[in-house]
Design a protein that fits this description.
10 helices, Beta-Lactamase, single chain, five-stranded mixed β-sheet, about 375 residues, 3 domains, elongated, alpha+beta, Heat Shock Protein 90, about 40% helix, binds adenosine-5'-triphosphate, 14 strands, binds magnesium ion
């Protein structure tokens, strides 16, 4: 086709190929049989295949095997809907995985029959790196505050150890360890030391794991664990604000798949926010509960975190999920907590919802997919 411009004629087919070759995203087109019939230079460069290898290749080879079943389903859906935007994973020739955002359009003939798809694929590696650093930055900001609580909590077992050492010092130096009062005193001191050391180890391990957990590791997660660890880490703050906690969640009942540290990060922020919202209130109750529900034909856990705090005005409710949106004084809040929580939950195929009544309280609902109880005991992670 030709276009008139300043009286000159322009060959749009060469314009089209220049545009395609310089387009910053990968573009490809697939026929009814799933054969790649068109691709641009960017696709060549990023995927590492030669032009000859790519042309005619089955689209299946372009995707990481672990996502193929989902892609296949999406391919059937798109034939009905005509357009779709999804995230997926490409596998390069050398096996490297590229997370991509795909925008696919269906091209039909005049009778409406399917001819081919046309897909623009955006490389998400940089964006994912930025999201990881944001999650890590949010984690580090939380760590500073948590460390203060942990240091406080270390004082209790330390005081016990000091008491035990006083008990041991009081023992006569030539103690006969065969069943007298001195023996009982020694056993009691040893028990105190051991229990205190275990408490301290638990505190420091959770804090260390939380700080370290940058790399995502998706494994079976019993929601009991991240919820209780978050309550444990925030124990100091919860007691300080005199919050009454109700958490009737039972161990090994609510399994999902994900990164335990990141899920813990979500709950840490929700509990910390609830404590802040209840600080000026007379009644301070935090309740956590889980129920199962069906969303889009799939089973999900709905973990509800409810407080009796100040609540959030209706016009503020969507804004709180935006980065740097905070009502807290400088140095107290960065306004990243909920936006990070939303990023983490989206990565876990979940969601976060909010309902609130100003003056009465707020409930955040964390939605996460239900996964069956793991059968492999090595992967159970039961402490
Ligand atoms: N449970 C709640 N009750 C009332 N307001 C809340 C609640 N949770 C969040 N908010 C409001 O949403 C804002 C954003 O929360 P978010 O967790 O994203 O950031 P932040 O708590 O202010 O800072 P950060 O989490 O980075 O320390 C808060 O400043 C607060 O105004
Ligand atoms: Mg917060």
């Amino acid at each position: 086709m030709f276009i008139k411009s300043d009286g000159k004629q322009i060959d749009t087919s060469s314009l089209f190929s220049t545009l395609m070759d310089n387009f910053p995203d990968m573009i490809h087109s697939v026929d009814e049989q799933g054969k790649i019939i068109f691709f641009n230079r960017r696709a060549n460069d990023l995927l590492g295949y030669t032009e000859n290898e790519l042309s005619g290749m089955n689209i299946r080879q372009l995707y990481a095997p672990e996502v193929w079943e989902t892609v296949k389903k999406g391919f059937h859906e798109i034939k009905q809907s005509g357009e779709k935007r999804v995230e997926s994973i490409f596998a390069c020739k050398d096996g490297t995985r590229i997370p991509v955002e795909l925008t696919t359009l269906v091209i039909r003939d005049k009778q409406g029959a399917f001819v081919q798809t046309f897909t623009i694929s955006r490389d998400l590696r940089k964006l994912k790196e930025m999201q990881d650093s944001m999650i890590h930055a949010g984690r580090l900001a939380a760590v500073g505050e948590l460390a203060a609580g942990v240091v406080h909590d270390l004082n209790n077992p330390l005081a016990s150890i000091m008491l035990a050492s006083t008990l041991l010092k009081q023992l006569p130096s030539n103690t006969d360890l065969t069943g007298d009062a001195s023996n009982d005193q020694m056993a009691m001191a040893c028990n105190i030391i051991q229990e205190s050391a275990e408490t301290m180890e638990h505190l420091t391990t959770r804090l260390r794991d939380f700080m370290r957990g940058v790399k995502e590791q998706h494994t079976p997660v019993d929601l009991f664990d991240p919820i209780n660890d978050a309550l444990f880490i925030l124990d100091y703050r919860i007691k300080n604000v005199k919050v009454q906690v109700s958490c009737p969640i039972i161990k090994s009942k609510h399994w999902t798949t994900g990164d335990r540290n990141q899920i813990e990060q979500v709950f840490l922020n929700l509990f910390a926010n609830a404590c802040d919202a209840m600080t000026p209130c007379d009644i301070r109750k935090l309740s956590v509960d889980i129920q199962q529900e069906i969303v889009n034909d799939k089973p999900f856990w709905r973990c509800m975190v409810s407080d009796t705090g100040e609540g959030i005005a209706p016009q503020q409710q969507e804004k709180v999920f935006k980065a740097f949106e905070t009502t807290k004084p400088r140095g107290k809040g960065t306004g990243l907590g909920l936006s990070i929580a939303r990023t983490i939950l989206t990565e876990h195929n979940g969601n976060i919802l909010l309902s609130s009544e100003p003056g009465k309280g707020t409930t955040f609902s964390v939605l996460l997919p239900v996964t069956p109880l793991p059968t492999d005991p090595v992967r159970l992670h039961i402490k």
